[in-house]
Amino acid sequence: MLKEYKSVVEVVGPLMTVEGVEGVTYEELVDIELQNGEKRRGRVIEVNGDKAMVQIFEGSAGINLKETKVRFLGRPLELGVSPDMIGRVFDGLGQPIDNGPKIIPEKKLDINGMPINPASRDYPSEFIQTGISTIDGLNTLVRGQKLPIFSGSGLPHNNVAAQIARQAKVLGSGEKFAVVFAAMGITFEEAQFFIDDFTETGAIDRAVLFVNLADDPAIERLATPKMALTCAEYLAFDLGMHVLVILTDMTNYAEALREVSAARKEVPGRRGYPGYLYTDLSTIYERAGKIKGKPGSITQIPILTMPEDDITHPIPDLTGYITEGQIILSRELYKQGIEPPINAIPSLSRLKDKGIGKGKTREDHADTMNQIYAGYTSGKDAKELAVILGESALSDSDKAFAKFATKFEEKYVNQGYYTNRTIEDTLNTGWDLLKIIPRSELKRISDKLLDKYLSGGGVEN
């Protein structure tokens, strides 16, 4: 029988302290009944002797210390999962908000999940096609990888997220694929953009959306990515699906973590974030992966906005340590009107070599990827040199590289948000651009591949 306590001694922000408790455990779910009969939910975040600290999901406004009743439910926060979740929209705590029927769960799962045993992890090695050339061609995403997108305030990361969610697929027949999309701390307009875009393009038919708005409680924001990943783990490891999880915006998640940490009077770390920010982020990112002997996989694309475009800020800095690379959006390309404004030079996928090549994408992928990257960096250097010394100071090969860099941004990067390129389209576009560069300068591609693919004229001026 559950005990009921009327011994609330303190409320600070979203936190409430209850004393005289017995048998209470960390992460336990709590029912809170206010003096007017209103009911709220919370979870235990600290136990010290006979005192328990509770995070209240809906906020603490209107709580009367003497009249409030608290019940500890003896179980953690859970998500009821079912195949019927696909095509539905939920709030940050897993409640349907799309006017559809309630989900009848097949099972209830602890949202904190379990880490994948390293010995049972399967190495990521299979290609996922996003339809975006800069990712597929140069920074390839593979199943089971975690590849974040680093953006800045005002940059169109929402458009990129929606494009990936619409277009991403695993190549091959009979593969079951789903997208789990979690939005944290976004505005109502942004939420409506995602819901409308998914609905109009039909992407909703294979997607599950979890939406936490900016005016929703910070505590709910902390639960949202865990809800999404719990749903993804069910789809991947119980139903055998390949699941792409998109989390936006992890900066809002970290801000909520800092807010709660400050309310707990914890000693702050860098820039006021709690010292356990790295550990907390790792509990989210490390839930991506493949398990040996199971057909499903979870691939993660966390999206975060870098405050003041600072890549050394604690959130992108720690994210970079945990994940396998990063895709970086460029403010300079955005100002040029290039869509999506992905900067290929600092972007990196550490597992790209494992997911490309003959039988996965195409035999020429690795060589063309290296040559395009080298050509683009050489072209950018040549353009900078022309600004300082004048174009007359450039050699013929420098001029060719400079032209290549310009055409690369115009034709390869600037594909728009609604153009879905196959990997063959991306590779062929790359070959068209490489025709600008003299064959003698294409030193990263074998003669055999040059003879096979390098034919015809260059791209239009």
From TrEMBL:
PROSITE patterns (alphabetical) = ATPASE_ALPHA_BETA (PS00152)
Q: Does the keyword Transport apply?
A: yes
ATPase F1/V1/A1 complex alpha/beta subunit nucleotide-binding domain: from which residue to which, for each copy? 131-349
Q: Where is the ATP synthase A/B type C-terminal domain?
A: 354-453
**What SUPFAM superfamilies is this protein classified in?**
C-terminal domain of alpha and beta subunits of F1 ATP synthase (SSF47917), P-loop containing nucleoside triphosphate hydrolases (SSF52540)
Known function? Produces ATP from ADP in the presence of a proton gradient across the membrane. The V-type beta chain is a regulatory subunit.
Q: What is this protein called?
A: V-type ATP synthase beta chain
Keywords assigned by UniProt, alphabetized: ATP synthesis, Hydrogen ion transport, Ion transport, Transport
State the family it belongs to: Belongs to the ATPase alpha/beta chains family.
The segment(s) forming the ATPase F1/V1/A1 complex alpha/beta subunit N-terminal domain are 8-74
Q: Which InterPro entries match?
A: ATP-synt_VA_C, ATPase_a/bsu_AS, ATPase_F1/V1/A1_a/bsu_N, ATPase_F1/V1/A1_a/bsu_nucl-bd, P-loop_NTPase, V-ATPase_su_B/beta
